[in-house]
Structure formats: structure tokens, C-alpha cells
Amino acid sequence: MHSNKGTVLITGASRGIGKAIAEAFAKEGYNLFLCCKNNIDSLTAFAESLASTCGIIAETFRCDVSDEKSVSLMFEKMNTMKTGSPQIVVNNAGIAWYGLLTDMTSDEWHDIIGTNLDSVFYICKNAVPHMLQSGEGRIINISSVWGNVGASCEVAYSASKGGVNSFTKALAKELAPSNIPVNAISCGVIDTEMNSSHLSEEELMDLASEIPADRLGKPEEVAELAVNLATAPKYMTGQVITIDGGWI
Ligand code: NAP
């Protein structure tokens, strides 16, 4: 028996927050379209296991969300499938870069803005026409508290997530007459490879001690919020919802 709750596209679902979001939606009975740029084999194995344990359809795509053609191609493939274009989109794929702005190359800048912000434009541009046609749609963007307040040594990342926050508020106004909510989840420090790949155990513990909740957030907590947003009243739109253990 396959689900009729609808289909959710989650970008960057091969690990971390995106993977947890995929699992949470699967457990609720949604069908999944999952993509990533690099780890397609492990993503496909993960999708197959969700499909069999949760009785859903889970398709995977290798897609570089910073590349417009790659995103268009993914939508072409999705549109030929029986589940059709996704009713819910979670723009999660993202990358970080740490260092002084003056040490950053233009290529590194464009890589951050392309992956974190241009991607949201490419995905929404392709997804929204189908949402309007079917009368069903929701957009959830995964942002960061650095998009709210800015971080030293993460200027490009902060700019990209600030862009995501404004994109969310603006598109929400554009789509509110069509009853399509657009919201963002602004994460504090969540325990994923994005942090553990560049911070030592000791640095992570120092960071946790600055957070009133006295710990890092879990990907599953962000996932729970994303699933709740998928059933929240549609009148709630244009919101940037922070989940950071009381940090910022
Ligand atoms: P992560 O563990 O590094 O995972 C990033 C995911 O994005 C991976 O699945 C990766 O897949 C995918 N990805 C990267 N570049 C891509 C591209 N060009 N095209 C398609 N997929 C791509 O990071 P995370 O911590 O889960 O972060 C997820 C989101 O949460 C990001 O938007 C991040 O900015 C945001 N966030 C995280 C934190 C945090 O503390 N962790 C805080 C605030 C916001 P492949 O490498 O397999 O392609």
C-alpha cells in the first residue's frame, strides 16, 4: 500500500538534517523525492530502506542544486513519475565556509551563494508552477541563525542565509493569495558533520556551554519541526522560525 499523503522533495538528504527530515516524513507516510550531489549510493540505499519499512515511494536523484540545468533535469524526471511534482519542498542542501572574508576567493563565494541561495530560487521556480496548477503546495527553507544576526568568519554563509530569510518572506507574500505557505527554519548549532568536520570535540563542548539549553540541537528536532510545519495552518506564512536552544 503506497501513501496518498503527498510527495515531499528534500534536497541534501544524504546525511545530517536532510536525512533526518526524510526519515520523519517517511514515518508519517509521505512519499519522498531525495537528492544530493555526491553520496548518491548511500542516499539510494537509505531511500530503499525507508520505502520498505514505511510502505512509501522513495526516489533518489543525483542533482547539484547550485546548477540550474541539473535542477531542471531533476524536475523533468520527477514529472514523468506517477507521484508527479512534489507538493511539499524542503530546501535543505547547504554548505559552509569558515575564514576571513579577505581570504575568500570569488569561486568560494559563488559556491556558497550558489549552493545555499541560488538553489532555493532554482528549486522554487520549478516547483511552484505545479503547486499552483494542483492547488496544493508548501515550501520550507532550512536557514541559520547566522542569517538572522551574522557571524564573524562566516560572511558569505551569513549573507546566503540572510538571503534565504528574505526570499522566504517575499515569496510568502507572492504565494499567499494562492494559499501556498512559505516558511523557514532558522537553526542554531545542530549536531551534524557540518560542525564536527571542522570543530574538535573540545570546541563543540565549549560551543554547547554557550547555549542556554546546554547542548547542541539534534537533526531529529529540526525534522520534527519540519513535519509540524507541513501540517500547520496555511495562514501561517512568511515566518522564520528559530530553533536554537535559546542561544541567539
Ligand atoms: P551536512 O551534514 O553537511 O549535509 C549537507 C547535505 O547537503 C548533504 O546531504 C549534501 O550531500 C548536500 N549537498 C551539499 N551540496 C549540495 C549540492 N550542491 N547539491 C545537492 N546537495 C548538496 O549539513 P547539515 O548540517 O545537515 O545542514 C543542512 C542544512 O542545515 C544546510 O542548509 C545548513 O546550512 C543548515 N544549517 C545547519 C546547521 C548546523 O549546525 N548543522 C545550522 C544552521 C543551518 P552530498 O555531499 O552527498 O552531495
Give a short summary of the structure.
The chain is an alpha/beta fold.
Account of the 3D structure:
The chain is an alpha/beta fold. It has a single domain (7-190, 218-242), classed as NAD(P)-binding Rossmann-like Domain (Rossmann fold), CATH 3.40.50. Helix content is 49%, strand content 15%. Strands 3-2-1-4-5-6-7 form a seven-stranded parallel β-sheet, with helices on both faces. β1, α1 (16-27) and β2 (31-36) form a beta-alpha-beta unit. It starts with 6 loop residues before the first strand and ends in a 5-residue tail after the last strand. NADP nicotinamide-adenine-dinucleotide phosphate is lined by residues 11-18, 35-39, 63-66, 92-95, 115, 142, 144, 187, 189-190, 192-195. Residues 11-18, 35-39, 63-66, 92-95, 115, 142, 144, 187, 189-190, 192-195 line the site of NADP nicotinamide-adenine-dinucleotide phosphate.
Please write out the topology.
Elements: E1 7-11, H1 16-27, E2 31-36, H2 40-54, E3 58-62, H3 68-79, E4 88-91, H4 106-134, E5 138-144, H5 145-149, H6 155-175, E6 182-187, H7 193-196, H8 201-210, H9 219-231, E7 240-243
Parallel strand pairs: 1-2, 1-4, 2-3, 4-5, 5-6, 6-7
Helix pairs in contact: 1-9, 3-4, 4-6
The structure holds NADP nicotinamide-adenine-dinucleotide phosphate (NAP).
